[in-house]
Amino acid sequence: MTRKVVQSDAPDEGASITDTQVLRSHIEQTRAEMGETLEAIKEKLNPQTMINQAKETVAEVTADAAQQAQETIHTVVMDVTQQAKDTVSEVTADAAQQARETVHAVVIDVTEQAKETARGAGARRSAARSPRRRRRSAAPFTPPKTRWLTWPIPRRRPDRAW
Predict the structure, then answer these.
(1) Domain map of the chain by residue range?
(2) Which of 13, 60, 86, 98 is least enclosed, having the fewest CB within 10 Å?
(3) In angstroms, how far apart are the furthest CA atoms of the chain?
């Protein structure tokens, strides 16, 4: 802070005393201001103050990093979970379709083999019988009704190929 000292034009001793007093008061005021400035600098450079500021900064940065890590982990977990769900759904649908196709093929094969076996057994019986004991009409062979054979055969879905 600078102050303008007004000097009078007249060489008056009373004026020089006043000027001296004004200068001294300015010097005292400047000393006081410099003392305050030095105290502020001293406080800023105090090791304990610097340590406390560093601790606060580290705490803030750590909290921000932890929050960002938590958000990233949450996002990644949600993405992986969704991908796993999608994959399980696809694999399950494909496995179910393959199982249906396999069961259908096995049922057809077993039915055909049973028919062939029955035809062969019927032909052997007919040949072994005498013509007198022959029945008028023989009923065609029907495979026994079991739960396994009556399972509904899956229909072909238009969106899936056999």
Answers:
(1) 13-101
(2) 13
(3) 172
- Nearest-angstrom CA–CA distance, 75 and 60: 23
Give the global pTM: 0.39
Q: How many residues does the chain have?
A: 162
Decide if pLDDT at 10 tops 50: no
**Predicted pLDDT at 118:** 81
Q: Which residues of 122-150 are buried (b: 16+ CB within 10 A; e: fewer)?
A: eeeeeeeeeeeeeeeeeeeeeeeeeeeee
